Amino acid sequence: MAILHTSTGKHHRIPSVTRGRKLDRLMPLVLLVASMVPILTTFGIVITLAADAWRFFAVVPLSEVFSTELAPLRAEPSFGILPLVNGTVLTSLIAMLVAIPVGLGTALYLSEFTSNRVRKIIKPIIEVIAGVPTIVYGYFAYSFVTPLLIKLLPGLGAKNVLSPGLVMGVMIIPIVASLSEDAMNAVQGSLREGAYALGSTRFEVAGKVVMPAAMSGIIASFVLGISRAVGETMIVSIASGSSKRFSFDITQSMQTMTGYIVEFTSGDAASGTTGYYSLYAVGLLLFIFTLILNLVSQAITRRFRLRAG
Amino acid sequence: MNMPAKQALKRRLKRRKRLDLVMRALSFFAAVFSLVVLAIVLYRVVVQSIGWLNIKFLTGTLSMFPEKAGISGVILGSLLLMVIVIPVTLILGVATAVYLEEYSRRSVLRSVVQTAIANLAGVPSVIFGLLGLTVFSRFLGLGSSILAGGLTLSLLVLPLVVVSSSEAIKAVPLFLRDASYALGATKWTTTWRVVLPTAMPGILTGNILALSRAIGETAPLVVLGIPALILRSPRSLLDDFTALPVQIYYWTLDTVLTPEYAHLAAATILVLLVMMFVLNGSAIVIRRKFARRY
User: Fold this and answer.
1) Which residues on A lie below 8 Å from B35 (Cβ)?
2) Strand pairing partners for A3?
3) What residues of chain A, 48 to 77, have a C-beta less than 8 Å from chain B?
4) pLDDT(B87) > 90
5) Is the pLDDT of residue A8 over 80?
6) Where are the alpha helices (DSSP H) in A66-214?
7) Closest residue by Cα to residue B127 from A262, A37, A244, A221
8) What is the pLDDT, as a whole number, of residue A69?
9) Interchain contact A126–B (C-beta under 8 A)
10) Cα B194 from chain centroid (whole Å)
11) B38 vs A23, A24, A125: nearest CB
């Protein structure tokens, strides 16, 4: 207990000091409990997905899971996951065909070809694009891009893979652009100056010196972009529809893994049915896909940081 | 140098310069492309909502008839979600960040928590929806209430809050802590009276940005099973509800049956974007006005 000797000679206890000491012992515990939440969330996700996916895999044979026939609501349902994987891969592929060249071009422009002043204007606007909710892109894909594309390609369905794929690409441009630009900015100036001194043009410096030096960061941005595309939900569930066919015709409707989860939960999949558990099986697969992609991206970035630092 | 070699060199130089020009032009178009798309998106949304976004729309209640529909209850739903997300993420996020930065430097736990946060940040939002559906809606029996939605969104944006709060706390210079210890303050007093107030502008900025992400999220709420019915405005945190992005989703889907819903969706998007704009703007103001550099 703290004692204060004052000029009058009386002893005063200072309560705030005692309370302070108690708090000092107590707070680390409180904070420790709070910081368990991210760990618990991670375990929570893995356990909830795995537990209910387990019930699904206990009932449905693997040969059916890896088939191309998906008909969860039929009297004799079939739960082939390949149509969903196919829809996810095709939309992500189209998205990356847009996001990689445009994102990389944007990064090159911002990092190598323009003044700091222009960069300070354009970069924040591109970050705004990253902040637009994906539901807005979904609306845009369905009510603007699809009708526009139908004028060019008359055979295009009202719900199709092409339009959400393209719009998803636009959504992913900022991810590729901003991470690639960071990697290019981290390349030492002396490398550039050396190349200029040898008489290189700006593009030669960018393409033969800066990009190879920043390659791991650039690839990491692509991988992260793919992970976003695979996990993106609203654009595809609005604009690519819910057809469960296994095909490669991007002018027609297809369902992605994320789209399946949304369709089944927003409808009323009765709890306890195989259809309900199939949600978690698809969720688990989606979780594993994106986790692998994120880990790969992190590993590449870490290696790149080690080498740069 | 003989003539043919000189000419060859000149031709080569010309080709290199042309390639340089072409590639620089292409990269310029790439950079402008996203800006153009953003402009088209905004233009489209504004044009579609002209004549539909008015006081009646903002203050009215949901209706089957597009002309009569209003979104006061939907806006209220989004605001009530924020009422849950703000305190939950602020308390949990800042507590975690303080623990990581002030109390557990170089411990195993720190790296475990950081790994968990890095991985959670990459988990698709629809998966958080499944977690919320299982834990909050079914296990805790919260159904598709505002509380269930708010807690789900809080978990979703928690990694963002932890990361930005950590950055803000890291930026507090060591000499401030040392000065506090020199005056006899305990560790917690130093954290509470010195570190947190100094880091507060950065913490708030990160929190507001996370909040802006949360109110635009659709997938987790749809997965929680928020019904596409015409709901009355929520009265408590345990009521069923609809929020701006969810309403946009259902109206966009229903344009097949009622084309006018496209205008309602566009008007709702505009309301959502304005809300996000206000949030982001206030984050920038806080950062500019209160951030101190040492």
Assistant:
1) 122, 125-126
2) A13
3) 48-49, 52
4) yes
5) no
6) 82-108, 116-131, 134-140, 146-152, 162-185, 189-197, 202-204, 211-213
7) A262
8) 84
9) yes
10) 29
11) A125
Closest by CA to A83, choosing from A96, A71, A94, is A71
For residue B131, the surrounding DSSP H or E stretch is helix B125-132
Q: Are strands A70-71 and A78-79 parallel, antiparallel or unpaired?
A: antiparallel
Tell me phi and psi for residue B65, to 5 degrees: -90, 120
Q: How far apart are CA A33 and CA A10, in angstroms?
A: 42
8 Å CB contact between B72 and B58: yes
Q: Tokens 């618990």 map to which residue? A: A40
Q: Number of A:B CB contacts under 8 A? A: 261
Percent of chain A surpassing pLDDT 90: 59
Helix (H) / strand (E) containing A70: strand A70-71
Q: What is the CA radius of gyration of chain A?
A: 27
CB atoms under 10 Å from CB of B51, counted, come to: 10
C-alpha to C-alpha distance for B112 and B106, rounded to whole angstroms: 11
| B-chain residues near A132 (CB < 8 A) | 38, 41, 216, 273
Q: Check if the beta carbon of residue A113 is closer than 8 Å to that of residue B23.
A: no
CA dist A204 and A135 (Å) reads: 40
Query: What is the residue whose two structure tokens read 């740069």?
Result: A308
- Strand-pairing partners, residue A13, are A3
**Confidence band (pLDDT; 50, 70, 90) for A11?**
low
Q: State the Cα–Cα distance between residues A145 and A162, nearest whole angstrom.
A: 10
Chain-centre distance for alpha carbon B3: 64
Question: Residue B256 corresponds to which tokens in the numbers above?
Answer: 């097949």
Tally of CA atoms within 13 A in the half-sphere of B258 that contains its CB: 15
Dihedral sign for Cα B213, B278, A102, A306, please: negative
Cα–Cα distance for residue pair B126/B104, rounded to 1 Å: 32
Residues β-bridged to residue A70: A79
> Which chain A positions have a beta carbon within 8 Å of B187's beta carbon?
24
